[in-house]
Structure prediction request, 516 residues.
Amino acid sequence: MNDEGNKVKTSEMIKVFWKSFLIQASWSFDHMQSLGFAYAIQPVLRKLYPDQAEYESRLRAHMEYFNTQPYLASFILGAVARMEQDRVSGRSSSADISSLKTALMAPLGALGDSFFWGALKPFSAVVAVSLLMANAWWAPIVFLVLYNIVHIGLRAEMLFHGFMSAGDTAELIAHYHLTKMAKLFKAVSLTVLGGILGMLPTWRREFRMALPLPGAVSAAAGLLATLILVAILRRGGSPVKLMLGLAALCLALAYGGVI
Amino acid sequence: MIAFDFHIVLSIVGVAFVGGIIGLDRTAAGQFMVSQPIVAAPITGWMLGDVTTGLVIGAVLELIWVLDAPIGTFVPADASIGAVSATAIAVIGSGGTALPDVIGFSILLTTVIVPLTMMIDVIARKQNSGLAEYALAAPGEDVSRKLALAHLSGLVVFFMKSFIIYLIVMPAGLAALLLFARMPKQFHSAMALFVKLLPLLGAALVARKLSTRTLDLFLLMGFVTATVFTQFIHVPALSVSVLVILAGLLGVRLSER
Prediction:
């Protein structure tokens, strides 16, 4: 059973990697990434199950409910590829594979959301905005490079790591230190954000305010205004409401003759 | 003042098409963050011949929406539509380089439609529910083909959602801009100030989400570093940006001890 024909090769894993970029193409509230997972794992199943009926049966099985953070889905795809290979050689069962998916998707979802959406994305964004405020037109390129070096690198590595470890999350957490990295990115993001406010008097022309104050004082005024807004946000309020409120304040200042 | 001639119609359709493709990156394909305002808005500005307006709109909307994340079943605001539409309305409506008041008004217009775009996004995702049933092939049918067809149809749904929204929002925005041109001077001054204050609101939104403290120590450290280097040592702003990142890394290292 366990001959070369029944082993997953790197070429199949590369196909899974490319297809994983479309894991959310048919995202819906009730099925979420179910079709996406089956679509991505399909090259592995095609390789492992030459019998058409068994192949179709396994493909249908992978259309079950699935949802996790889309990048960390790579780890689960790798682990499932390994488990499917083990299933062919009799070392695991369909139930084991389904259980593995169910067990991994929620914790990896939480881990990925916190790292990618909550830390890496704001870090890349504030660095790019900081450069943009300093008149660097190439800031959007920096944003894409910073984000995607980590994003694509981890996505590729985790696919193979998932395969090699057969879905061992303890090893994943020990190997990648995502929680520690998230803390680092958040702290540096806050520092850069403070830096953006400190550079207020030198912001690019479109944002520069002609305040009759020394530079350091106008920067402090900007910091104070931001902290007031943070305090307001802590009491509730969505970005849309705050933007409309800010527009209303500007109108009041203009019609009141202040500006 | 602009008139809806063939060139403008062509620009609107072109931006709607590119915006639809960019919008796929939000959820359906890749998620390389090309759909983020800081990238999507400059691309739109470049297409229409005014990158600067795209950079300005991209910077403020990036800060405002960056931490509005798609966690679980939550559908975040479509910042891509906001960024692309605001840039297109400002640039097309100005017939060249957009002035700050026009930029401010365009951002305000696209802010008002955020709840509407979120609602349409929810409808599109509900529409995708039917694709799972379609993917279940009947006996004798090619399962792989049915699955691929059903799954990739979602791309068309997501694209069409954005494309149609752009085709409605941009002409409506440009019509509103015609009214804006007739508004009193105070209204224009208010919109120019609005653009200048938006980065502070963006900074507040990011600080609020990244820290539980109102005045975080890292935020304060970055502020002091940047103020000292720009105001007292007179280091160029670009170099200060790099120094602040280094200060942040140093701060993390020290806080770990």
Notes: Residues 209-255 of chain A form one domain. Chain A touches chain B through 106 residues (CB under 8 Å).
